[in-house]
Amino acid sequence: MTEAWKSNKSTSLLPFPSAIMTNWIVLLVCLWFPPLSAAQQQAPPPAPESRPAPAAQPSGPKPIKIGDVVLSGSVRGRMEDWGWFETPGGENDYTFGALTLRLALSQTKKRVDWQIEGIFPFLFHLPTDAVLPPPQGQLGLGASYFAASGRQDGSASVRQAFVRFKSIFGDAASSLRLGRFEFAEGAEVAPADATLAALKRDRIAQRLVGPFGFSHIGRGFDGVQYVRSTKLNNLTLVAVRPTEGVFQLRSLKEIDVDFYYGAFTRQLPGKPARGEWRAFVLHYHDGRRALKTDNRPQAARAADTRNLRLTTIGGHAIGAFDAGRGTVDLLFWGAAQFGRWGALDHRAGAFAVEAGYQFNARGTPWLRAGYFRSTGDGDPADGDHTTFFQVLPTPRIYARFPFYNLMNNQDVFGEFRWKPVARLAIRADVRHLRLSNRRDLWYAGGGAFENRTFGYAGRPSSGQSELGTLFDVGFDVELARRTAMTFYVGGIRGGGVPAAIYPAGAPRPPARFIYVELLQRF
Hints:
mainly beta, two-stranded antiparallel sheet, Porin, 6 helices, 47% strand
């Protein structure tokens, strides 16, 4: 390993990318230029002033078929540059890369369809000195991959292998899916309205259960899913066990966790107001003997080998309303939990309220603001556990710089979105983050992904409550019909919680996360 990789130089809030990061960007772009050039020769985009309506655009490349079977897939390359809170003696400043290939065969018939999909992730240049003893812990996601997979750099696994029976029980609206598949709670229905669809995708779906698609490995679910979907209503029932994966390259086997989920979603179409609501229940059982992550002393947690049995009841409501020269949007999400956290009684909750306004102007500028709060635990010795549990989410959707999650968390944010041209989307956020209870932990992670560790990390608050302020901006570019690029920059101005753990950067320890990603579908 070169000295550049071992560097622990001071981390500015939003530094210029390192030389290693620049090299990765050049490599990824070069790898993608041949398909980009071919796609552009097949269908060059018209000039903005003469671009036809979407219905008149070419349909894009035809699917690859072997008889009635469709071959599809994607190749995703990402370079991640991490500047974790400065940690003398640890590798807090590093760059690593990953390539993920997905290949699928599928067939669709009138009464049945099926799909088999393999996933082939490869990791490059993971940091080897970024995992430290508590409380510093893992210094960014590169450290998480190394802690879970060591020096292994690639794997092959079955991500999906299912069959879906349609029109079951003589009901054309009903279907039953059996096998291994990906599932995202809250995404059972995609509203026809573009505003509502964006709210569901970015602010509702996968808060509690998702495939963790941002990670280079992700997770699947083995089980059964029943869906009855009509024009206005959707009923979804799921009973599954998650697979290994996420940060662990080995992702073929199930882990000793299961959950049962049911949701009813109702569409509310109309003009000038339209909306949607959902009610759900989720029961989670964890039978692993992994050391639980909570604010009790380690000896008490090690002695507690009883299972987790948690029930979450909740729902959401979203609406969009034509108002003046734009559109107002409103969002509410809430959940209450009860059950057993090992030897402890569990009671917790969380809610989110958000609002926004889209202007009917070029690029549809969209301003949004919101507040989220989840409960934390204030007494580790009282026999109760009141930290909200995020189950098995895709946490990066709600923590774009994933140094935190939605457990024991308060999040006040402002957001700006804009599409200056058809193929470019810009999003910028400012978030002020605090712990809900300073006697609880600073949590991060996305839930169970192996049997030997719990899946969530917890660092002490040191009696502080402020995590810091996050500034970030992301650019999503459609380079061709099946080719996309994402560039993201996030910087943190840390508060008292990280300052107590990483005093080298105190009193406002900075950190950064930068990545560039290229995605080619076929």
